[in-house]
Amino acid sequence: MLSLRLYMAQRITALLMAPLVIGHLAVMIYAIQGGLSAEEILGRTQGSVAWFLFYGIFVVAVAVHGAIGLRTVAHEWGGLKGAALEVFMWAVGLGLFAMGARAVWAVTFA
Asked: How confident is the model over 58-76, as pLDDT tens digits?
């Protein structure tokens, strides 16, 4: 049952990430072609709840998706099993979340 839940969680986060990646790429292309500086970009994102939610959801989806994917790699290629595999997955997921959340906070509210 756990493997089905992880499978579904990874597929759902992939579905969630697809439009977020497209949106992120569109914003990056707009910023580069518009010649925006880092200061101008931060001026537009600071204090924005919308950007906080957009990138916050993105970070959560990436953390879940990446942790589950690396769990599979660690099991198939690294031979991790049982509790060590679960600790690895949670450590990766929480690490990705912490780094992403810090970046989102810095860009939107710091």
From this structure: 999 999 999 999 999 999 9
Burial of 76 (0-12, 13-18, 19+ CB in 10 A): exposed
Entry pTM: 0.92
Rounded CA separation 92/26 (Å): 28
User: For the residues 81-97, what does the mean pLDDT come to?
Assistant: 97
CA 66, 67, 73, 74 torsion: positive or negative? Answer: positive
Tokens of 72: 């599979």
Helices (H), 1-110: 2-33, 38-45, 49-76, 82-108
Residues 99 and 39: their CA atoms lie apart, in Å, by 21
